[in-house]
Amino acid sequence: FDKEYSLGVEKKTFSKEDLEKAQIQENKIIKEIENLEEKYGVDGTVAIEAVVRNSNVQKMFRNNLIAEYGCKCMICGIENIELLVASHIKPAKDCNVHEKINNNNGLLLCANHDKLFDRYLITFKFDTGEIEVSNKVSQSDKEKLGINKSIKKKKKIFQVKMLEE
Predict the structure, then answer these.
(1) What is the pTM of this model?
(2) What is the pLDDT of residues 65-86, one digit of tens each?
(3) What whole-number distance in Å separates Cα of residue 87 and Cα of residue 111?
(4) What one-character-per-residue DSSP string does 11-78 give?
(5) C-alpha–C-alpha distance, residues 96 and 49, integer Å
(6) What is the per-residue pLDDT across 43-60, written as a single tens digit (0 to 9) for each?
(7) Cα-Cα-Cα-Cα dihedral of 31, 37, 43, 46, to 10°?
């Protein structure tokens, strides 16, 4: 085999301008790589600081909800404890420790309904307990998720005042 043929390279003559353009392009690529390394590190990761929820407080909150409302999703009734999430009504980041474990600040939901609630795609009217669904959720998805206007939570859940700070 001819070395140049096996590499798929034909003999070609490049002008000085072609070589300069190629060098400029190569320098741009090298600069982009250096910027990415600086931003994300050589291995493509970046160190961040984060506040992590105290898992003991979250476990206590979840156990309190299970004890009071039973081990099932408050919307669809799924009973598999591995699929249930204790979801805060008032976001945990805005709560003191007492509010974080207060049953009146929580709903026990399956993972699907928890995600909808956290993303403000579903909520409940506090005066009637009726579910409200965002228009961002299609009719098809509502059906697949078992969401309909007949879903209603006990008013008690929404009418008891949260503990004062």
Answers:
(1) 0.61
(2) 999 889 999 888 999 999 999 9
(3) 10
(4) -----HHHHHHHHHHHHHHHHHHHHHHHHH-TTS----------HHHHHHHHHHHHHHH-SS-TTT--
(5) 21
(6) 766 666 666 656 788 888
(7) -150
